């Protein structure tokens, strides 16, 4: 199966001489590259906004850390229900691309809603909820297209390539936001409008150049929401989902990492968007190497190792020492955390899920991940208000350590081979 899939993928790519296995290991499907370009543009757009939102909340709107925690949790968790519904439609009607287009378009339009909402907390909450719903719609179909466009032995590499392009956008977005704010001071509306224009180009690229990919159509096995949740009863996948949700609850969001650094070092407002670049740079450099490494060593091992990096981040933030060395160390480790967890987690899940319901399986996993993020932001905001910054960071560090131990015990590091690998026809 693997050799025939590799030959088909090589033939489609127009490769020359050399063994099919070695060529398949070096090449990535065109669909993956185009989806990477779409994510690059979308991340430029979204990171222009998200890199300034925490400071926009606290400095311009005057929100407390608790209110910021609510909005940040909403930003991460509002996508849960549409994520599941969109994935169900994508799998049932083999329409992954249309669902992804709808999600990208919805998020693009929401960039225009932020300046319209002004300083209204309900207005901003609504816009953020709709924006994250768009992200929820698109993420699982996009990841399923990446997985189904790739050979079984190159899942980590394919996701690594995609995340590299995605992170290049995350690197460019804060730079553009920094340039805009440097030119027009606190004119955040200019950032929001520029963000919309970039997102609209990404939607056009997706419409014009991405090809649909379908898994096999199994007889007498209709795709239903019940069947999607039934995947949680599969031992390895169910335990993976539980561990991922717990680990997400024990980590803290980017917004709180950056706000902690900003308050620790008393950074000027105009430098705040550049903190995201410190995370994006190692993420950009390491996504592909670590994604490829996960194909050889096992993605779950790298996933857990990434959370060890985040445990160190929490320890450094709680130390309250501050200074450039601590700041750089936190941002680098934060980027390594993402590079070691994002692509490997999707590669891990792809090996556990049948091709015909892979979109739904990804959506279930990502929905529980989003619920963990939502709970984390609310808990951090509450604890910060009543306990203060350092006890809160220590408490989250202890929780993350316990969750890491549980995850290492519950989920095997060495995975079985994919049960429903793409056929030669699907790999073309």
Automatic annotation (TrEMBL):
Biased composition (Low complexity): 1-14
SUPFAM superfamilies: MFS general substrate transporter
Location in or out of the cell: Cell membrane
Membrane topology term: Multi-pass membrane protein
Regions crossing the membrane: 28-49, 167-185, 191-210, 271-290, 302-319, 325-347, 368-387, 393-415
Residue span(s) of domain Major facilitator superfamily (MFS) profile: 31-415
Alphabetical keyword list: Membrane, Transmembrane, Transmembrane helix
InterPro entries in UniProt: MFS, MFS_dom, MFS_trans_sf
Pfam families associated with the record: MFS_1 (PF07690)
Presence of keyword tRNA processing: no
Disordered: region residues: 1-23
Main localization of the protein described in the UniProt heading: membrane
Entry protein name: MFS transporter
Source species of the chain: Kitasatospora cystarginea
């Amino acid at each position: 199966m693997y050799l025939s899939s590799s030959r088909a993928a090589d033939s489609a790519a127009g490769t020359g001489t050399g063994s099919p296995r070695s060529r398949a290991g070096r090449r990535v499907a065109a669909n993956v590259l185009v989806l990477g370009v779409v994510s690059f543009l979308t991340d430029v757009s979204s990171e222009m906004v998200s890199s300034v939102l925490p400071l926009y909340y606290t400095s311009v709107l005057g929100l407390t850390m608790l209110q910021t925690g609510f909005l940040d949790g909403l930003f991460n968790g509002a996508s849960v229900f549409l994520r599941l519904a969109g994935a169900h439609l994508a799998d049932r009607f083999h329409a992954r691309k249309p669902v992804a287009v709808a999600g990208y378009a919805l998020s693009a339009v929401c960039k225009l809603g932020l300046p319209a909402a002004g300083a209204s907390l309900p207005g901003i909450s609504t816009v953020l909820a709709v924006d994250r719903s768009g992200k929820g719609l698109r993420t699982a179909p996009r990841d399923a297209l990446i997985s189904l466009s790739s050979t079984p032995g190159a899942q980590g590499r394919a996701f690594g390539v995609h995340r590299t392009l995605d992170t290049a956008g995350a690197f460019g977005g804060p730079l553009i936001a920094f340039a805009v704010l440097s030119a027009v001071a606190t004119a955040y509306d200019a950032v929001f409008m520029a963000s919309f224009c970039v997102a609209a180009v990404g939607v056009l690229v997706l419409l014009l150049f991405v090809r649909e990919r379908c898994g096999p159509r199994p007889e007498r096995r209709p795709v239903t929401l019940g069947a999607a949740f039934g995947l949680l009863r599969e031992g390895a996948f169910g335990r993976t989902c539980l561990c991922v949700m717990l680990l997400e609850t024990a980590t803290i969001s980017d917004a709180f990492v950056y706000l902690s650094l900003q308050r620790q070092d008393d950074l000027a407002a105009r430098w705040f968007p550049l903190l995201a670049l410190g995370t994006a740079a190692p993420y950009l450099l390491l996504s592909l190497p670590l994604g490829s490494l996960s194909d050889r060593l096992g993605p779950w091992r790298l996933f857990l190792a990434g959370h060890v990096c985040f445990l160190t981040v929490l320890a450094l933030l709680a130390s309250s020492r501050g200074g450039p060395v601590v700041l750089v160390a936190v941002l680098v480790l934060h980027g390594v955390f993402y590079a070691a967890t994002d692509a490997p987690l999707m590669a891990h899940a792809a090996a556990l899920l049948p091709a015909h319901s892979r979109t739904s399986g990804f959506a279930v996993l990502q929905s529980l991940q989003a619920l963990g993020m939502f709970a984390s932001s609310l808990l951090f905001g509450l604890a910060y208000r009543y306990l203060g910054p350092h006890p809160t960071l220590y408490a989250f560090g202890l929780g993350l350590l316990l969750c890491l131990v549980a995850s290492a015990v519950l989920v095997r590091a060495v995975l079985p081979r994919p049960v429903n690998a793409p056929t030669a026809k699907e790999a073309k």
